[in-house]
Amino acid sequence: MNTKAGIVGVGSYVPKNIISNFDLEKIMDTSDEWIKTRTGIRERRIVDENEATSDLATKAALNAIKDANLTPEDIDLIIVATITPDMIFPSTACLVQANIKATKAACFDLEAACSGFIYGITVAKQFIESDAYKHVLVIGAEALSRILDYEDRSTAILFGDGAGAVVMGPVSEGGVLSTSLGSDGNGKDYLNIPAGGSKTPASEDSIKNRLHFIKMAGNDVFKFAVRIMQDASVECIESANLEIQDIDYLIPHQANIRIIEASAKRLKLSMDKVYVNLDKYGNMSAASIPVALDEAYREGKIKKGDNIVLVGFGGGLTWGASVVRWSI
Ligand code: COA
Q1: Residue 289: CB partners within 8 Å, gap ≥ 6?
Q2: Does position 1 have pLDDT exceeding 90, yes or no?
Q3: Which one of 132, 153, 158, 264 has the lowest number of neighbouring Cβ atoms within 10 Å?
Q4: 251, 277 Cβ separation under 8 angstroms
Q5: Active site residue 212
Q6: What does each C-alpha distance from 141 to 128, 156, 288 come to in angstroms?
Q7: pLDDT in tens, 236-264
Q8: What whole-number distance in Å separates Cα of residue 83 and Cα of residue 98?
Q9: Is residue 114 annotated as part of the catalytic site, yes or no?
Q10: What's the gap in Å between 120 CA and the centre of ligand 1?
Q11: What is the pLDDT of residues 176-235, one digit of tens each?
């Protein structure tokens, strides 16, 4: 019989420090009212000075491994999806491996911005279904506060820090029914950090010009997001041989409540089937979907046998969606 990959454990971790919209009002020209009505965000979590992405990822990973009733020694591969690695290299996945003592695991980071977690589970599915590996840990983890320009009110209000993780392995029922990924490198200027790579290494000028922070064309990203959330969801629902009526729950990337509501409307899915926690955390990029998945599961919103759509979009541009029939 062919091996089928599914999610066998899920966990998350967010840092303790809370930054509310009112806190942001004190340091930039914005208001709680503007942020709430334009984005749905009320507050976000921020790492403290001694925390980095690998610390958040480590805690989320241990929670997911425990949830799967496994030990770190059972993990064959660790994939960390992130745009805020602790360092350029070694990979954050290697740092997590050392922290959790997953001595048998191969490790790498995956960079697909906010779509990173969907890309990660797609890669894990291939390894498991080809019988190359049994248990793959997929983590989405970000310390975005480290790359935010607190002098740019159009981006600084949107993002937060956190980590979510799943353990994937062979399942006898359900599993990852389909995934659909896409990219459009022509959109590279919509969302990026211009400096710090090989094109524009760190220099006095790059720092003076604030080029190590996130830059975003908000309106362009907004229009792209609404269209692609619908298209990617429809594509993966069709390739799972399902219809929209068969979908029990949607876990979208948590960028903006207006994007989520517009996408749900286009999909003809009522908002009581859509998980939203961006009011508490803002956009955590690759961490948004796995943190939302963990919280929805703990709140009893998804049950064994449910068909769940995970869908995200982000810098690159990239996008991805997956239908998962819940197996735990
Ligand atoms: N506080 C108060 N006013 C703000 C503000 C803030 N934090 N940020 C922008 N504004 C102002 C603008 O300067 C503009 O003023 P003007 O009309 O005097 O020029 C006005 O608000 C409207 O700006 P606009 O950019 O048109 O707002 P918007 O309704 O499009 O909302 C975003 C802006 C960023 C919230 C929205 O475009 C968005 O969510 N885009 C998608 C971003 C995203 O999801 N990125 C991550 C992808 S993974």
Answers
A1: 117, 118, 140, 164, 251, 252, 253, 254, 310, 312
A2: no
A3: 132
A4: no
A5: no
A6: 22, 18, 9
A7: 999 999 999 999 999 999 999 999 999 99
A8: 20
A9: yes
A10: 30
A11: 999 999 999 999 999 999 999 999 999 999 999 999 999 999 999 999 999 999 999 999
